[in-house]
Specification:
Elements (H helix, E strand, L loop, with lengths): L1 H16 L30 E2 L4 H4 L3 H12 L2 H22 L4 E12 L9 E15 L4 H67 L5 H36 L3 H8 L11 E2 L5 H6 L2 H22 L4 E15 L2 E15 L7 H68 L4 H35 L12
Parallel strand pairs: 1-4
Antiparallel strand pairs: 2-3, 3-5, 5-6
Helix pairs in contact: 3-5, 4-5, 5-6, 5-9, 5-11, 9-10, 10-11
Subcellular location: Cell membrane; Membrane
Family: Belongs to the outer membrane factor (OMF) (TC 1.B.17) family.
Membrane topology: Lipid-anchor
């Protein structure tokens, strides 16, 4: 009879374990962007590369070195890796609840009680036992909890990859800023040299009465203005180096040694092809994938809350071997026990139902946050493409502007030396040229920064290395 009861309990628990609660699922229409294609024009570039190999296609050894250094030791990445290990441990912990728990005990005592009898006796007691318990996952509550923790682990891994992309973008932006400041510093330095020659020539003319003190003052003020601009460019260079030191973990000496190996100019613009389907781009964004995992975790919480309102079944068993010695009396024996425990929530003043409703509300919030993030992602990509297309047009126009002002500067300088143009005319043409040149570099820097921003906006791809186990 006992064995039949045991078999019946096992059969019932096996059958009920297949009756898992249904987890909520969002509609497919809730998960995709409303627009089937991009409304902004896809940006173009002279050179295009595959998105997965974009950084290598820059063909800049200095940038490659800085990128690799930042990926090797970075607090942001180390923090993300630690969160992955924590989430993985929690997920494995949840899986363990699907199996029985077994424990062992061993006790030993030696006692004497003079209040009970006279003469008193010393008593020795000892026992060794095993006990086991197993909560049957009747409704899939444990598996739902495991699913939620696995979703959390997946979210942490996605965040790690996102951190890689963010760190790479941060290094690239600092590097681009550095090269831009260096290029502008070289232009300003060349301009300063030209202004100093003009100042010296004006002073020579003034000494023989061919130039007025006003002309000397103007030339000197022009030189001083250029000195101030050069100091500003140097400040930008030093600040960019500090930023690279912070993000790469290299010493400032190492960073300066690296950047000294490359040309003091901006990298050539490099683009990539953006797929025409927003849904494909959105699904590879890390923040969208994190929100998707949050939806899974919220659905698992709903399942856990539902299971809490249903009956639960646990099995418990124990066996013990004991021994007792008192004077000449010696006792040995075994004890064991086994049985199921059924728990049924009867009255809890609506607490469990309220918790289920709260879990359902959190699931709906997670779906809404996913939808909101999708809209933000589409907007970010669209706006970045609009800015990039505008930047491409402005760069092209500025190149024409620089070429025109350069011709004007050359002609005015020749006329001034010949005495047919004033120093004031020369300074005006020089200022126009310098303004156009610095604007050109600023726009080219902005163009590269927008490509980097678009790279991040569409999800980015950094060569993914295995996460530390």
């Amino acid at each position: 009879m006992r064995y039949r009861l045991k078999l019946l309990l096992i059969a019932v628990s096996t059958a009920l374990s297949a009756c898992a609660v249904n987890l909520p699922q969002p509609d497919a229409a809730q998960l995709v962007p409303q627009e089937p294609s991009w409304q902004a024009a896809t940006p173009s570039a002279v050179r295009l590369a595959e998105q997965k190999a974009w950084w290598g296609a820059w063909q800049d050894p200095v940038l490659d070195t800085l990128l690799n250094a930042a990926q090797q030791a970075n607090p942001t990445l180390e923090f993300a890796q630690a969160r992955i290990r924590e989430a993985r441990a929690k997920a494995y912990s949840a899986k363990s609840y699907l199996w029985p728990t077994i424990g062992a005990t061993a006790t030993g005592t030696r006692s004497q009680n003079e209040l009970v009898s006279s003469p008193s006796y010393i008593t020795n007691n000892g026992s060794v036992g095993l006990d086991a318990s197993w909560e049957i996952d009747l409704w899939g509550g444990i598996r739902a909890a495991e699913q939620g923790l696995l979703a959390n682990m997946q979210a942490r891994e996605v965040e790690w990859h996102d951190a890689q992309v963010s760190v790479a973008a941060e290094v690239a932006n600092a590097y681009v800023a550095l090269r831009a400041y260096q290029a502008m510093a070289d232009i300003v330095a060349a301009d300063l040299e030209s202004r100093n020659r003009s100042l010296q020539l004006t002073q020579d003319k003034a000494s023989v009465g061919l130039a007025s003190p006003v002309d000397v003052a103007l030339a000197d003020a022009s030189s001083a203005d250029s000195v101030a601009q050069l100091a500003e460019m140097q400040e930008g260079i030093d600040s960019s180096i500090k930023a690279l030191v912070a993000v790469t973990g290299l010493s400032e000496r190492e960073v300066r040694a690296q950047i000294s190996q490359g040309a003091r100019q901006l990298p050539q613009p490099l683009g990539f092809t953006v797929t025409s389907l927003p849904a494909e781009v959105i699904t590879q964004r890390h923040d969208i994938r994190v929100e998707a995992e949050k939806v899974k975790a919220a659905a698992a919480d709903v399942g856990i809350a539902k299971v809490a309102r249903l009956p639960s079944l646990s099995l418990f068993g124990a066996i013990s071997v004991g021994r007792q010695e008192t004077s000449s009396l010696e006792l040995n024996g075994n004890t064991w026990s086994f049985g199921p425990t059924v728990k049924l929530p009867i009255f809890n003043a609506g607490r469990l139902k309220s918790e289920e409703e709260a879990a359902q509300a959190r699931f709906e919030q997670a779906v809404a946050m996913y939808q909101q993030q999708v809209r933000f992602a589409v907007r970010e990509v669209e706006q970045t493409m609009v800015k990039l297309n505008s930047s491409n047009q402005r760069v092209a126009a500025t190149l024409r502007s620089v070429a025109g002002y350069q011709k004007q500067q050359d002609a005015t300088n020749a006329m001034w030396k010949a005495g047919s143009a004033s120093l004031f005319d020369l300074e005006i043409s020089r200022r126009f040229l310098l303004t156009a040149q610095t604007k050109q570099i600023s726009l080219q820097r902005e163009q590269l920064a927008l490509w980097i921003a678009l790279y991040k906006a569409v999800g980015g791809e950094w060569p993914q290395h295995p996460v530390n186990q």
